[in-house]
Amino acid sequence: MKKIYILPNLFTTANVFCGVYALTLILRGDPHLYIRAAWFLLLAMIFDFIDGQLARFYKATTRFGVEFDSLADFFSFGVVTTVLAYRIVLQHLKGFGIGVAFLYIVFCALRLARFNIQVNKEEKTDFKGLPSPVAAGVVLSFIIFNDHFQLGWEMAIPFIMIVLSSLMVTSITYPTLLTLNLRKKKPFLYLVAIVLILVILITHHQIGVFVAFISYLILGLYQGIRLEIRERRKVAGHPALPRKIG
Known about the structure:
By secondary structure, this protein is mainly alpha-helical. It has helices spanning 6-27, 34-57, 63-88, 95-118, 132-148, 156-168, 177-180, 188-203, 205-237; strands at 126-128, 173-175.
């Protein structure tokens, strides 16, 4: 029997526990518990982040850990997040709501499957497509934000999920925290943006969490599109090879 690294997998297990507990809150059918479930799913993201960092720090990345982490992410950020969105709004949209739920879960599975086959290649420093925890984070933080301010924007959730589903399966490159490498010199606006987000997270966490996820979504999309345009220009500007005669 192959040996496994205990510590990173314990945090992955904590991710699953948060997902299970959030699911039990959702299935009680009490709308007052939905926001608590959303917070537990965001807590699952913290455990998901820590297990990845521990695996890299201790060089404890294994095939078992990758598969376990992906299954945990699919459960918490794919299935349970979709069930929460379904209970809040999708169930009232009948066939359309079921279609959105199906699309989000399937595209989340496709995103994680693609990550698993690319984990030893180009995704060491970048993500191909929007990461599923970030997609779930946008949905969950919007639910919390909408509830806190009593905005009544629940009908935006299915359209947000459709956009996020599409971004998960695109070839747009999203940066990891390793790519950002804040120890190196960065534009002054980076510091301003980080300080502002931290202040909002501390003073108004319902707003701060939403702002943090939306900021990553927009910044990553902007950088990814710029990178793709740059790569296409390089290919277009490459001189054609001379044809062989005879």
